[in-house]
Automatic annotation (TrEMBL), chain A:
Keywords: Membrane, Transmembrane, Transmembrane helix. This is ABC-2 family transporter protein. The chain crosses the membrane at residues 14-40, 83-101, 113-137, 165-186, 385-406, 480-499, 511-535. It comes from the Bacteria. PANTHER family: ABC TRANSPORTER PERMEASE (PTHR43471), SLL1107 PROTEIN (PTHR43471:SF10). It comes from Thalassoglobus neptunius.
Automatic annotation (TrEMBL), chain B:
It comes from Thalassoglobus neptunius. It is an enzyme of class 3 (hydrolase). It comes from the Bacteria. This is Putative ABC transporter ATP-binding protein YxlF. Its EC number is 3.6.3.-. It holds the Pfam family ABC_tran. Residues 6-240 form the ABC transporter domain. Residues 281-293 have a biased composition (Basic and acidic residues). GO terms for molecular function: ATP binding; ATP hydrolysis activity. Residues 281-301 are annotated as: Disordered.
Amino acid sequence: MAVEPPTFQLGLALLYWLAAFTSCCVMGLLVGFVASLASYGRNGPRVFRSTLARGFQDLVKVSWQRCQALASLTFKEATSRKAFLIGFLFILLFMFGGWFLSESNVEKPAMPYITFVMSAIYFLLNIMALLIACWGLPADIKARSLHTVVTKPVRRSEIVLGRMMGYSAVVLIVLAVTSIFGYFWIQRQVPERAKDQLIARVPVYGEIRFLSRSGQPAKSLTNVGDLWDYRTYVEGLTQARAIWEFDSLNVSELRKQGYVRLEQSFEAFRTFKGDVSDQVRYRITLLNPESGLRVPMPESYDVNEFSEDPEASVVIIPEELTYVESYDVDAEEKTVNLFDDVFDGNSLTVEIACIENEQYLGVARGDLFIRMPDRPFYVSYIKSIAGLGMMLILVVGLGTTASCFLKGPVSTFLTGSLIVLGNIFYEFVKDIYSQKVVQGRVLGGGMFESMYRLVTQMNMQSPLPDNVGTDIIKFLDERVFNLLFVVNAVIPNFTYFNTNQYTANGFDVPWMGALVPSFLITIGYLIPLIILGYFSLQLRELESK
Amino acid sequence: MSDSVIEIRNLSKVYRDFWGRAKVRALNSLSLDVKRGEVFGLLGPNGSGKTTTLKLLLGLLFPTEGQVRILGEPAHDVEKNERIGYLPEESYLYRFLNADETLDFYGKLFKMTKAERRERRDALIKRVGLEHARRRQLKEYSKGMTRRIGLAQALINDPELVLLDEPTSGLDPLGTADMKEMIRELKNEGKTVVMCSHLLADVQDVCDRIAILFRGELKVIGSVQELLEAKEETQLVTSSLDDATIREVESVLEKHGANLKSFSHPTSTLEELFLRTVKESEARPGRRFEPGERPSATTES
Ligand SMILES: Nc1ncnc2c1ncn2[C@@H]1O[C@H](COP(=O)(O)OP(=O)(O)OP(=O)(O)O)[C@@H](O)[C@H]1O
Ligand SMILES: [Mg+2]
């Protein structure tokens, strides 16, 4: 089993961010303009303009020294509020937690320990980040100690930034301490026979494209009637091909290893009943699109989809490749070097054909990957922790911003809800979205349609009556869907940050699949959060009501 | 640059609750100027709007109507704060810091270098007499000690305008005397001081000009001398005299047709003015000081 990372397209993400950011700004400006008209009447536009100009200055002319001073103040404040006790709580949890974990997973004995540590850190620190970030500023305003600060030449943007930096430092320190503790705890607790599971396997995924049965480039191949079209099917003994291109490979690491290890998880689809144990076979050809070199691997391979043996799905490609260009008996044998001749720079292209008449080979992007040399467990562990750290910074950012205009309990509630939503909402909306796009409709309809069905006890499949009521329901549902998509575009997708699954299953955490997106998401949210926090603090009287 | 350090024009403030309903009209159309280099006293009974005025000047509150200019800038300007020191009504400081850390922190907010901060901090702690307690957290401080560190904090940047909200509240007599001395020193250094207080003796001692607020309205404004000179009395303050000397002075006075009414400590005549103003304002609400009117006119009746 491999954990296939979601694809993350940097350019697209950036474009999305720009679109979302711009529309949020435009909306904010509109709301601000209307509000200034409402409260200042004829002077509204002038006030609006000067507020904006001031805001721009305050956000651009931030002083690093003042931010640092405010951050270290925040840090001391958190210390004085005993925030670090969370660390002790964590360690306490572990002194007893181990008793309940023994041998719960037979197949992967190491997994429960890793999962336990990571989820304990995840929950404790999230709660900690949430609480300290949401309560600090309101307490500061209530005690009016902030009065003394804002009457110094301090920009409110510096207050927001300084707070975020201070809380982040607190949370990251606790994170570092608990995760170091957790690491040694895992090393001690995992039973000796399962120690080899503490590893970071490194699958490298490629991009997939297809050739149709007549050899033309195609978006996808045969659909065998699965509702869920994760896989597409390569028809046997036609010109249909699935082609993977693996980019940005670390060639020197592979050279040192001396071979390339491919792992597959294809599915065999049989059109006639035969013996299930009869294997469907496939053939591999390595391509160099630059030089036009085609190297067919001399053997063919079994799909082995039901095999228990993990090595049954492995194909080793040696550095020295000896092959014949055609299958003629008297064809000449040739020898090439995998890394020098077949690799195009640091990318490798692999073409898969099914060689079973009237059988199909089910393939998806994640079904073929290159296994790089394994890395030590701590690599994956540290990366997971780093992902978590970025999530915590985002939580701190959300909490601090909320606390700029809300009181402690309310901002805790708001931020907490955002975290929960950010963890589940995305999947929920993605499901609706894919149903809409792939099937053209959502099973059971949207909010209003399903309410209608619920009330009339109509089943989910039968069509609605053809009348005006239906049109109205459909129209409203469409708006609700759009609203959902908009909300989804604004709520942070926290699922990226939780990379425990990789680590617990013995995989390395991929950069592009998890860490880079987490980092960008964090930055992407912090920028508008700081702006929002600044204006909320700037435009309010610092008098607790 | 004009010689008005503070200009307040038609300033009104209505406190509203969460729903935006008006609760209190804390200031009503206040106009006054504070000149460069003077010590200005803002007087008034509890709840008359003194603190509100200061907060409006500092941009902590937003005016309902009217404008303020402070050091020639609008209240929300950040950079003007470089030249302002503010001692809040209660010293709102961070209770988990000690005196050293507190001053260091505020010093950093002015982008002072480490050496500058250390020098300034040591001088101020000495000046407010907290050397014995500089390493103790502020939460352990008594009220007067908190006041002292609050003052030190307000002076950290060597400000050219100092706003003091009840500087002597909570201070012992010695502290009060120190405070007055310090205010005089500030004046001598050419700084402008605005202070709120109820302790009229203090105000009388140090202020050049005063304004009396009542329920958010300006009732009296003028120089202390001007406001009190209508009195047909002369006060003599000398170093301690023995009985013989006092009799001698008496005889000299008799010769000139005057008699010695008392030879105790001077009474605060400002107190009389204050009480009279408040009583009058209560009796005749609505009447208030108009620019151009002679200030003592309100006090004559
Ligand atoms: N945050 C607030 N919310 C509502 N009303 C307020 C608030 N602060 C002050 N007030 C009201 O405004 C009026 C003026 O208050 P202010 O604090 O300015 O008086 P003050 O002259 O400083 O009084 P004191 O001598 O007691 O310090 C009072 O009626 C007070 O109740
Ligand atoms: Mg007051």
